[in-house]
Amino acid sequence: MEAAMTKALCAACVDAAGNVLTGSYRAGCRECEARAVAHGPAWFAAEKVNPAGLKDVPEIYRLALHKVFGTDLEQWRQRVKHWAERIKEAKAIKRNA
Ligand SMILES: [Zn+2]
Fold it and tell me: How far does the centroid of ligand 1 lie from the alpha carbon of residue 11, in Å?
């Protein structure tokens, strides 16, 4: 599993490891927050631009990252992207099932 950013997975992250489309999140868990951002409208705006780096992201997305994570925005941008890719794959699989 690619949970290298966290020392221990919370229960909701364990759920998400099995099913990324799970609706469970745990308040205060940064991986859950990254996953929540990946499900949200700010990511939707960012994905359309396909930014190469933090300096290229749409303002709405930069603000969302800043509000949720505060610091280490590039690191968390990568985590949100990771979750967004997994969510996209899972939705494609579901559609084709
Ligand atoms: Zn979590």
Answer: 7
Q: What is the pLDDT of residues 6-29, one digit of tens each?
A: 467 899 999 999 999 999 999 999
pLDDT tens column, 21-74: 999 999 999 999 999 999 999 999 999 888 888 999 999 999 999 999 999 999
Four-residue CA torsion sign, 65, 14, 25, 88: positive
Distance from residue 75's CA to the centre of ligand 1 (Å): 16
